Amino acid sequence: MSVSAQNGTKVDNEANGVHGKKRREWRVEVSRRARQTYNPLRTIIEFMDIKPNPKKSLIPLSIGDPTVFGNLKACPEIQNAVIQAASDHSNNGYSQLIGSKAAREAIANHMNRAQHSITPDDVYIVNGCSGAVEMSIVALANPGQNILCPRPGYSIFQTVTQALDIEMRQYNLLPDQKWEADLKQMESLIDENTVAIVVINPSNPCGSVFSRSHLEDVIALAEKYFLPIIADEIYEHIVFPGKKFYSLAPLSKNVPVLQCGGVSKRYLAPGWRLGWIVINDRGGVLKDVKDGLAKLSGVPLCANTVIQGALPAILKNTPQSFYDEVNGKLHRTATVAFEMLSEIEGMKPVMPEGAMYMMVGIDLTLFPEFKDGLAFIKALVEEESVFGLPGECFCYPNYIRIVITIPEEKMREACERIGVFCANHRSNTAVDHADSDDPPCK
Description:
Elements: E1 2-3, E2 10-11, H1 32-36, H2 40-48, E3 59-60, H3 76-87, H4 101-111, E4 123-126, H5 128-140, E5 146-151, H6 156-163, E6 167-174, E7 180-181, H7 183-188, E8 194-200, H8 212-224, E9 229-232, H9 248-251, E10 257-262, E11 275-280, H10 287-296, H11 305-317, H12 320-342, E12 347-350, E13 357-362, H13 373-384, E14 386-387, E15 389-390, E16 399-403, H14 408-425
Parallel strand pairs: 3-14, 5-6, 5-8, 8-9, 9-10
Antiparallel strand pairs: 1-2, 4-11, 6-7, 10-11, 12-13, 13-16, 15-16
Helix pairs in contact: 3-11, 4-11, 5-6, 5-10, 12-14
């Protein structure tokens, strides 16, 4: 700004063309972050332009929302806790930015059943587990740096990192080893710009549950290179008979861990959008990160306060029988799908050990008319109205992810339709498939 020599008034030099030109037409540009934000699930599905067979009802094995089919419902104790919280006018306003003290104390007490070291000051309440993942990444990584994520893995990590100019380097999960991480390949991805390792356990999309020894091997690698771990444990309590879930943080002596969790999956309420980050610091190395998380919490102001108000009662009063019933239903449906799909030549299901999903391989050499898995799945939807997410959504082509939250009888029908489709298209002449022009995993 300058001062007029005649009357002393301030003049905007830039507006008058001294330092720039005024706009003379509309030119509103999208931001780089918005332009770069990419959700592979949505983008790939839109690219496929799927139209189900109008003569057959659609069986959507693609939707990761356990409430869709109506066979899985929150129990009365959960619902009543929310009703009571909504009736209490004290939950109508803003909470502390990082969450109400009562809700954070409840989460800390819940975590301390296994860890015995968490305080309310270690807990940050956010908008859903996806929000927890995003905030953890933003707090740790700058543009140009990289984090290690599993392949196949949940797409939110790709969406967040790409939007922020953070590189996502993918370490492989091995289907013939119950989707354990390829640790040698993981180590080869680490360089001076690596700032964190992401572990999703139990896994979306694989349904795997890591053993204690495997988690300890991952921790040892993180310790070797002084890397914190972001542990996405939203499915921590959905584990099938014969398997045990080990939370990563209690196993770590020296590696700091950011645990991401929430109410969406265990309590069958993803729409309530309440998640959390629990900081498991080691040696005080996350002090600045905790300060950063507190500052980042000022952007959304706070998470859903009614659900925060209900959270202590939800965590305390939900009976074990509710969890057992949900896990039993999921395990039975998964078993049905695995057994039926295993009988179909060309299908290679991997039996899940937890979570809500199953990965099914497609042996494309037996289906030469389809150039890739996307074409296979597109035709499956158009002919049989059965839709699972293509593996390309998780950077893992020639696989399909199906949900196991569907009622058992619907799963049987879906598998029968898949069997009919495969029988109609299977060839006795195996062929190789060249690379396609379909959208890559960015």
